[in-house]
């Protein structure tokens, strides 16, 4: 919970980056983490500092993947699973179900991203392997 507040404070300090292919606000943070969605009410795509060094196709693929997460409200589902995991900390199966849910969610998101945005599958690793 404390990390969430620290991240919220960092995100509010950095200015929003507008990418030409999306209206969703993006924030570039000096981190080496993979891109992710942050925020419940007004989600933003957090992009790492290495993002600008990727070629355009890779940038679009990563951002499209995060946009699919936003469209499917996956960021809200993750928070719900985290709360359940905290409430039922004594039950090891809740944590295992959470991990299975996240894995299935990432696979679904990869599939939707590839089919919706007509991305080529040949030679591409699943997007969740990049995270």
From TrEMBL:
Peptidase M56 domain: residues covered: 34-116
Any Pfam family the entry gives: Peptidase_M56
InterPro entries the record matches: Beta-lactam_resp_regulator, Peptidase_M56
Protein name per its UniProtKB record: Peptidase M56 domain-containing protein
């Amino acid at each position: 919970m404390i990390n969430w507040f620290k991240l919220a404070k960092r995100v509010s300090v950095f200015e929003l980056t507008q990418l030409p292919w999306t209206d969703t606000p993006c924030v570039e943070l000096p981190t080496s983490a993979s891109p992710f969605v942050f925020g419940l009410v007004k989600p933003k795509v957090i992009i790492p500092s290495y993002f600008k060094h990727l070629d355009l196709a890779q940038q679009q693929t990563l951002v499209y993947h995060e946009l699919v997460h936003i469209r499917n409200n996956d960021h809200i589902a993750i928070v719900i699973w985290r709360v359940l995991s905290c409430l039922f900390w004594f039950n090891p199966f809740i944590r295992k179900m959470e991990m299975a849910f996240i894995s299935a969610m990432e696979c679904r998101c990869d599939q939707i991203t590839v089919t919706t945005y007509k991305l080529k599958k040949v030679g591409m690793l699943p997007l969740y392997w990049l995270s």
